[in-house]
Amino acid sequence: MRQFIPFALPQFGEEEEQEVVAALRSGWVTSGERCQRFEAEFRAYTGAAYSLAVNSCTAALHLALAALDIGPGDEVITTPLTFCATVNTIIHVGATPVLADILPDGNIDPESIAARITARTKAIIPVHVAGLPCRMDEIWALARQHGLKVVEDAAHAAGTHYRGEHIGGAASQSDVVCYSFYANKNLSTGEGGMVTTNQQDLYDRMRILCLHGINKDAWKRFTATGNWFYEVLEPGFKYNMSDILAAVGIHQLRKLEAFTERRAEIARQYHERLADFEEMELPAGTLEGRHCWHLYMIRLRLDSLSIDRAEFIEELRRRGVGTSVHYVPIPLHPFFAPWRDRPENQCPVALAEYPRLISLPLYPRLAAADIDYVAEQVGAVVVQSRRLPALASH
Ligand SMILES: *Cc1c(COP(=O)(O)O)cnc(C)c1O
Questions:
Q1: Exposed e or buried b per residue across 286-307, where buried means at least 16 C-beta atoms within 10 angstroms of its C-beta
Q2: Ligand 1, atom nearest to 127 Cα
């Protein structure tokens, strides 16, 4: 039998291995010289003015909202089609999440955001779903008009460009951009994340909040030129990245352009092989920048198939193809019950799209034969479960 093709796999090489060993042998394993290098290279890559390595994107989002002083009584608008972390962190700071509906491309709908803005709204968190850039011009216009902050959940979007530059770059009007380096993300350190900003005051606040609210990091306390004395300015968090993970990140970042090109090539091959099946819709590209193809999300046309999404996924699993669903919409999770029934959280488009969504395997390690096999099997499941058109009556 053919080997199972997992939905996602990271790709590490000797460069990462050697740098991790060097970090371990150096004796400095918490945030230090390697984190500083990773941050500097990440600034150079994205064009952002400031960067801070953290231990997850969840930490990054929490840090951003806390540094922006968002809290009880405030509303934060985000999308229903995201990972729970986007909404959990809004709740962690004591603010109220508000869900705007999505566009057919999966990203948050600026018109729906506009309809949700109240006197309490403080911030918008767009998510670049699958690596497709959101309509940032429209989101920034709303933010300017209403005095709102913009925090991008860029967990999928390391490598995504918008209007000629990397998201979060020099021309970005967002306040903070949050990246994830989780196991299955385009750049992986196992666990990890990064915040970038173009505002020095926000960077300074996040740097302090990231390490207990201490005014001096370990590097400035324990190295030869350091000094033992420190003070806690406010009760912060423990969100800094370890140098062991930064060692991985430095080399993953250097490979990210090659990874992104490979991902785009795989997406192109899926497009080519699946385009003729009318029983599904393929993911849209973008003319406003560069899709980084974190995910390849197909949408089934359920009325033309005799099976539902769960059966489709099960059939692919039986044939040795791993898939996933991005995402169970936020309002369907039990934790969201207190906010679910409010009129401002109704998102019919997201709820209608959800039963149709399947994400196919897409990662640089996917072999040419695996890409062929996945496309072939998806096609075979469609053909086998095609609903015959009703006979025309006349
Ligand atoms: C992965 C992910 C996160 C959380 O990232 P972590 O680094 O695991 O905390 C947040 N938002 C989205 C959209 C994600 O996909």
A1: bebbbbbbbbbbbbbebebbeb
A2: 13
